[in-house]
Amino acid sequence: MKSIKNHLSLIVALISILFSIQVFIVVERSIDAYKENLAKNYSVVVVSEKRIANSEFLSIDGLINRVEELSPDNIINRLNTGMDQKNINLLKLTLPKFYKLYLTKFPTPKEITTLRKNLFSNPSISKIEDFSNNHDITYKLLVLFKGVILVFAIVVSIVTMLLILKELRIWQFKHSERMSIMGLFGAPTWLRSAVLFRLSIVDAIISSILIYLIFMYISTNRFVLQQFDNINIKVVIFDTLNDFFLLLGVSLVLSILLATMIVLGHKEEV
Where residue 181 falls among pLDDT bands split at 50, 70, 90? Predict the structure, then answer.
């Protein structure tokens, strides 16, 4: 019973670390997907005194993906108070040209500033509306949210690693007599600590399998999927192959590293 309890405490600690890592991965994927969605809908409106070819716009800045010329008909219809067709055609010729620029990605505030500078280098362009205020707020919220999740994951990982170190040290004390006897017979350090490493490896594998089952359930949960649908994004919550082996590798490396620290620390005390 005590053995199961010791195993369970180590497994729960490892699951906490792996869970926080996977949550950060999901958040990062969600932010990337949301930024892609924003990039599709986000655009910059440019007013030009002369017609500018699409190829000329694309050569101004690599951030520009495609260009759409806005029709002046909507503006003319608002101004039309009974003008004849001749005056309407004349007004069309005198109105400036309006363009909507779609970008290759959701830009940072610095990239928006650079884009404005490059666009204004064209003497025909008289005005640019980039909706920078709304853009800056959205971008900063995304960065802040990602930063909070990262700090949370780091804090959880550090605290949990300290708990794992304590748990492994307890296991070392329980087997210290057997390890001392093996040392008297000339057994190398790695052999004396085989139980500790076996515990670490087995629990790392078990915790990885459990976190796999947890996220497989989450990835098929209707409520969770509905939340992503509400913000109109699609996110891979858990990649069965890549994420599992990533978490398994992290779990094994972390467990073996902490066990090695315990063994080396014990050796120095002797």
Answer: low
